[in-house]
């Protein structure tokens, strides 16, 4: 894939225990060089895969994790079958120490199967790990996860939460696209996805520009960086990101958080409901509802309900936990008709 990327701003010398709140709310990606280089995990990962495994095993529980496995001919790309009716991988429940030992055994293989333990809760499966390997995100209460595997490729996708991804073993190439590149990335099914999020159907290792011609425009907006152990990257909410592990053994630790109250629902649920109730309306009605959403949602401000007494504004008033609970109950009642 030929890319002439716009560079990502790089920051150095940051302290993991004192990240600027302005950085954590950034709408632009940032490379955080050496942010977690002081972590014992990153230091072990920089020395060797064996040292990284030895360190992780200090914390690993014996209960199985979900390991995703694809045949060598997948090229490490966890994806669909040719007809997009199934996936090219299988999932097994295996104790984490067994996965780690298996990855070590495959280090010298020319064409090993692709093995991936993705999005595994650190607090659940590696208790005690965060005592010496953690970021302080201030008021945010992030979900901390670990990702372990060999040479794997995760198709470009979006996440609703903001994300700081920290490489602690191996190397990663991260390719980012702004949210505006949605139509140029040729996104697959919303309801049958490899790992929960809809993904780009383009193979970044060999893009087919005859089948996906607008991907050439997406590449004009791509931002690419390679990360070593100790480096991190801030991926803002809804930025498309393609993750490629470049070494025979790789570990990534990431933190997800949202810049919204916990009572707020996922915008993806609103999209699903809009597909159900708006998309297939006659064009004139669909236009009307576009104006309704513009007025009540996308351009809403203090004037939207200013003509109503404050006590009578109901759902047009500020959202809070109580009102969100009432609205959710009302929606459930309507959906369960």
From TrEMBL:
The protein's matches in PROSITE patterns, at most eight in alphabetical order, are given as: JMJC
Q: Which residues form the JmjC domain?
A: 115-272
SMART domains referenced in this protein's UniProt entry, alphabetically: JmjC
InterPro entries (alphabetical): Cupin_8 (IPR041667), JmjC_dom (IPR003347)
Q: Superkingdom of this entry's organism? A: Bacteria
The record, for PANTHER family, names: HYPOXIA-INDUCIBLE FACTOR 1 ALPHA INHIBITOR-RELATED, HYPOXIA-INDUCIBLE FACTOR 1-ALPHA INHIBITOR
**UniProt name for this protein:** Cupin-like domain-containing protein
The organism that produces this protein has a lineage beginning with: Bacteria, Pseudomonadati, Pseudomonadota, Gammaproteobacteria, Lysobacterales
């Amino acid at each position: 894939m030929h890319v002439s990327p716009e560079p990502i701003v790089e920051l150095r010398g940051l302290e993991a225990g004192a990240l600027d709140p302005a950085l954590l709310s950034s709408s632009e990606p940032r490379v955080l060089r050496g942010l977690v280089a002081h972590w014992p995990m990153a230091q072990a990962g920089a020395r060797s895969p064996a040292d990284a495994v030895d360190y992780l095993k200090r914390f690993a529980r014996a209960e199985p994790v979900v390991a995703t496995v694809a045949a060598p001919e997948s090229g490490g790309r966890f994806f669909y079958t040719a007809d997009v009716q199934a996936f090219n991988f299988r999932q097994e429940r295996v104790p984490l120490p067994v996965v780690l030992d298996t990855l070590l055994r495959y280090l010298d293989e020319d064409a090993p199967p692709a093995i991936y333990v993705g999005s595994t809760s650190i607090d659940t499966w590696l208790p005690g790990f965060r005592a010496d390997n953690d970021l302080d995100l201030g008021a945010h209460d992030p979900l901390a996860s670990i990702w372990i595997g060999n040479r794997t490729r995760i198709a470009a996708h979006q996440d609703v939460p903001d994300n700081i991804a920290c490489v602690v073993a191996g190397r990663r190439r991260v390719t980012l696209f702004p949210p505006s590149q949605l139509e140029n990335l040729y996104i697959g099914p919303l309801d049958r996805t490899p790992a929960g999020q809809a993904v780009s159907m383009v193979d970044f290792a060999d893009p087919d520009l005859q089948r996906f011609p607008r991907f050439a425009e997406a590449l004009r907006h791509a931002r690419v960086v390679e990360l070593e152990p100790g480096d991190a990257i801030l991926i803002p909410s809804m930025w498309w990101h393609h993750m490629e592990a470049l070494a025979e053994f790789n570990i990534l630790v990431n933190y997800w958080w949202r810049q919204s109250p916990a009572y707020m629902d996922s915008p993806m649920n609103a999209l699903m409901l809009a597909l159900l109730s708006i998309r297939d309306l006659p064009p004139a009605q669909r236009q009307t509802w576009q104006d309704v959403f513009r007025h009540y949602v996308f351009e809403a401000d203090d004037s939207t309900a200013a003509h109503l007494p404050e006590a009578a504004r109901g759902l047009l008033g500020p959202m809070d936990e109580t009102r969100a609970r009432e609205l959710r109950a009302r929606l459930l009642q309507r959906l369960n008709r």
